[in-house]
Amino acid sequence: AQRDSYELDLVKAQLSKKTGVFACEEYSAFVKGESIYLGEGPSGEETTTPLADLDVSGTMGNLSAPGQTTGSWLNTLTFLQVWATVHEQGLFSNHDWTVKADPDAVFMVDRLRSFLKPHTGEGANLYVRNSNCWVDSIELLGPLEVLSQAAVEVFHQGRESCSKKLPWHGWGEDYFLQHCLD
């Protein structure tokens, strides 16, 4: 969640109603800077997982600039840090699927579970392609990213190599994630 924005209020509301990621078996909420109290959860006090402030907020892409693939946030560095923390925490290894959901994404856990059920337990390196709007372009949009346990591991093992080999500096995190997993 973005500190000092409407996103934090959304996250707190979702926790209080046990919706969005808070309807999952386990969850983490991330914020740049110090941890923030979110409210009371099933196990007591819930706080955000702090991330280093990489001073990249506010950087927007420009589709007319060479090498840029988004007019949205250039947030790859932030989400590389999020995914590294997800791996370090290890919660993903307790589950078949890991979901990254933006605070303002509509995310209905039961519907996603039904959709994923035929692919659960396969152990394969999978991610959900959630867009087919653009031919030969992005098929994994950032508001809701769904990765199998194996895909989280594959991404973790390959993210440094992808950072070196891919021309990602004009990309959003979703485009980077898709290209690294492909």
From TrEMBL:
> What superkingdom does the record give?
Eukaryota
Q: What is this protein called?
A: Uncharacterized protein
Organism, as annotated: Strombidinopsis acuminata
